[in-house]
Amino acid sequence: MSWTIVVGVKQVPDADEVGIDPDTGRLDRASAPAVMNGPDREALEAAFRIRDQVGGEVIAMSMGPPNAKTVLKEAVAMGCDDAVLISDRAFGGSDTWPTSLTLARAAEALEADVVICGEETTDSSTGQVPPGIAAHNGWAQLTYAEAVDARPEEDRLAARRDVEGGHELVAADLPVVVAAAYGEFDPRPAPLHRKIYGENDFEPTVWDAEDLEIKDEVGLEVSPTSVGGMETVDPVERKGEVVDEIDDLADSIEEVVA
Amino acid sequence: MSPELESDTVADPNYDDEFDAIVVGAGLAGSAAALTMANRGLDVLLIERGSSPGAKNVFGGVLYTPTIRELTDFDDAPVERYVAERRFSMLSKDDETAVSLRPGEWHEKPHNDSYTVLRGDFDEWFAEQAAEEGATLLNSTTVTGLIREDGRIAGVETDRPDGTIRAPYVVLAEGGNSLVSEGANLKQTETRENVAVGVKEVLEFPQRDEVIEDRFRLTDEAGVSYHYFGEGAVGDAFGGGFIYTNEDTVSIGVAYRIEDAAAHDQSPEETLNAFKSHPAVAPLVRNARTVEYSAKTIPEGGAESIPDLVHDGAAIVGDAAGLVLNNGVHLEGTNMAVESGYHAGNAIARAADKGRVGADALQAYPESLEESFVVKNLEHYQWMMNAVEEDRDLLFEDLPRAFADAGTEYFRMDRQPKESHAKNAKSAVLSAVGGWTGAAKLALRYRKVVT
User: Fold this and answer.
1) How much is the ipTM here?
2) Chain B nearest-CA residue for A73
3) Can you give the pTM of this predicted structure?
4) Alpha carbon of residue B116 to chain centroid
5) pLDDT in tens, B42-97
6) Which residues from B are below 8 Å from A82, CB to CB?
């Protein structure tokens, strides 16, 4: 028994480098380099754990511009067996609906038994793509999975899910889409030779919209999301006061509380 | 029809003996070695423990670039400012006596090959130059040891799983805290008297633009290098302080013997804060915000502390080889790092052409380093560290005070004739140095600083 485990990874602006301009208080995204979405590293770790259990292949997929190859090379450096970039100008402006359709078709083409994604991306935080992939393909889904357990003899994957007030253990028939809960799968370090290979010598396969036969089903036109408007909220003016004596501090607190 | 994956993926990559050389550390020495070897057609693996080259590197702030300019398209290099003024300043507790040099020639390219740089930017760029020549840069990987085979060094061990890799040559460019070289018995751990601690802050001035230009009298890309000595700079310790101007920031720091940091109950942070508060320094950095704080150890053993530079299958370069010059007037290390990396790279390329890996085949590296300014300068100033150590109270405390007193006396405005002021000034200095005889002895002892 060996499974094909497909992991969705995305290139996002480095959250550590998206600084806040100390003078204006605004976000400064432009200077942030593109890196792999943090939760996706954990999705990779979850995939490697399943591969450790049942054997098989872990294949990374990403939908993005040509320079998103970097995160796929990194995924191979971390331990993926192969990677595919889905890239086409036609994808421009796609919201989560066509995005999850695209990834669903790619997962189908890869004959995935399991698809694993991070629970959300740090640049848009919708969390809609993993359930979207499951919905488009009519596959089972295990969202907010804190732990995974492969049951190859039953053709099922079990997951411990984080739910309000505790957790539940759910087993789903393959193929299944998993959203890995962030913070639960500490990524293992990349092996040395694999890191050299992934970063330098590996080149991902590239598919376009035509390859997946979805050219007319993607892009801005077919994206149902519309932005109603944006509002910037001014920070609330807060009163600051320095007191020298503890008693004065107590007085100030009393004043406010009273 | 379903699309398919291209099938040339390697299932189990192995790079043992795929590279001609491994360089440990992508600082200036390591990247210079990698660039030199890549230029000569060698396959080089450059291993860096930081998330990018320069992320872990600290130095004061001025880079001397004659060799880098030869090796790269230096016009593209991310330098901050060229050094247009060098100022040497003696600080007693409250006084400053300074000498400043602003030669017109330094405004002309190549600006005396002296630039302020920030290592995070510069080292990344320099390593990229090596990568563009074909070297393979591997970040976030720490070399933890060396592999030996039949007595010779045959590769490195890293902190990664499946973490050993073999190659015929290893260049150790791991910096002053050279745990790999020491762990492999390629060099002795440096004694505490021969190691300095440097701490540095990078400051920005958020209130308005052009603070740096105004305070340091600068236009365009000109910058300054200020050096400070005396008890106002580092208290009782043996060392000094510095201020360098970057494009939008200022680097300010102190460097002094680690022994003094340990023995004199003088933490580097406190020493730096005291220096920043000195009446002659504080106005230069007022209303600044600290954007970076860093510290490092500096090998200052001089020529006597240089270990055997070549071993069977390995060479040691840069700070790891103790190639740092600090004689007060000259503070150099990164230029020597580049020079040593360059000579080591050349020697390895020559040995590789002949298919030889023994230390004798790499002997061209120490030989050309001996012939270069690196060892010549280190040997020339070896005597000085010892002399200065002997005279430290005089040089760092009594003299700065005496010069300040002399200046105060000489220019005193009162109703006495100038002649009596000059006499008082002279006696302030003479009493500090032990009369005319003492002055003559001092002059003789230190004449080689400038000759």
Assistant:
1) 0.85
2) B9
3) 0.86
4) 12
5) 999 999 999 999 988 888 889 999 899 999 999 999 999 999 999 999 898 889 98
6) 5, 9
